[in-house]
Amino acid sequence: MAVDVKAFEAAGVVQKEFVDAFSNLPSIVGVGLCLNTLADGPALSVQVTDEPARALVPHTFHDLEVVVDVVGEVKAL
Description:
Alpha-Beta Plaits; globular
């Protein structure tokens, strides 16, 4: 699959909007970009601390799929 650079650039703008909208939730420890589950376009990749936090994250945001991974607590080394 060829990566649609313009789609990922637009997704980067949506990523910033997601961070602005959800940065008040301490259970979200990371937000990035990834391929959607169909592997045909971009999605938001959201890392959360625990399974209950998954319910706080929407399934889509501005028409992008949101892929949530439970990664646990993140601590600086």
